[in-house]
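User: I've been going back and forth on whether these two constructs are worth ordering. Before I decide, could you fold them both?

Assistant: Sure. I'll take them in the order you sent them. The first construct and its structure tokens:
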Amino acid sequence: MTISLILTILFFQPQAVSASCANPGDPAASFEWGDAVFTGQVVYISSANGVWMNAVTRSFMALGFHPADFQDRLFPGRRVVFEVDRSWKGVTTSSVTIRTGYNDWNSSSYPFEIGSYYLVYASHAYGDPNKDLLTSRCHRTMESPNNSEDIAYLNTLSTLELRPYPAIIRIIEGNLIVPILLLAGGMYVLNHRKKTAGGRTGRR
């Protein structure tokens, strides 16, 4: 029974129904509400297995954990790196990393594509300025915004000066996290084995 329940949690996929979210409002309201507003081109999206991550999330929830308890640390979503050309709020570098959900069909994510150009409205996770900037379908983020009412409104505002920060640095920094963790884990295992072997030798 327990095994069947675990298998059902891991592999049953519900119909792709996006959760509802409040209307983000007009451009002025979205600008006021957001922590960052900028335009730019996507140059990198971290790989992610949405089915697997969704299964892990449901498994933790079945054990009584709320996703907010662990997702920030373990599965913070896809990293999307932008080359920024204009910023009106919250972004002062020529590149920026934004987080979005793993599952493109869910309201907590946004279906970005590499090479496409976007107007991005983003906010800090849980309203904490020390956390990552997030965007989703619940924000007013849009592709190819040049003829939109949003750009017409934003053009009435001042833009921020952008200091150079190559996007490749953000890509490399993010991709080094997993190798560093694997290396640290490997060193720990080797050190533990050496100590164990030394202890056995000393007892002889």
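The second construct, handled the same way:
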Amino acid sequence: MENIKIVNKYLLNVYGKALDNSPRFRVVWSEDVFETRRGFFEDYTEAGIFLRRYQGVRRVKKYSYLVDRFVLEAYTPEQRSSPEIEDGDRYEPLFVFDKKGQFLTPETWACDYVIHRYLLAMGGEVQKRTDSMDAQAHEEEIDKEAQKFVAYMEEDDSNIMQRFRNQEAVIVPSGYKES
């Protein structure tokens, strides 16, 4: 859970607060979030036997359809106008940290990706690039180049490339001057 504190602090620092001082984005654990809803409810025994169906108000898990997952949420004050939610937290889900049924640990870069696209879709402001985002993009670019170079070396069967693979030769960039 320590990672979640770091992620939420990052989200607060980068994306700020709403007018009522609530974080604009947050990550929550699906089992910890409840809301009071108006609607039809069914009660069952522990053995799964149907007891009754009734209409009323009940405090329920917000994400009853999710089990043990982190959820990235966006602050949406208009949720208060929903007739079935009596006591909502004004947050709506943007992304569930799950990949084909497998648990995913929330990461700041993943949150940035989802939030950026959400803001674009909402026609709102888009986060300005930070030095860390540029550094990460640069690292990914270097990794792609390295993978391309490895693929090139594996495909080339020339004598010089075989000697390079066997560590019998080196590649010296053109324009290199020995000091």
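Notes on the second construct follow. The longest strand covers residues 50-61. The chain is about 35% helix and 25% strand.
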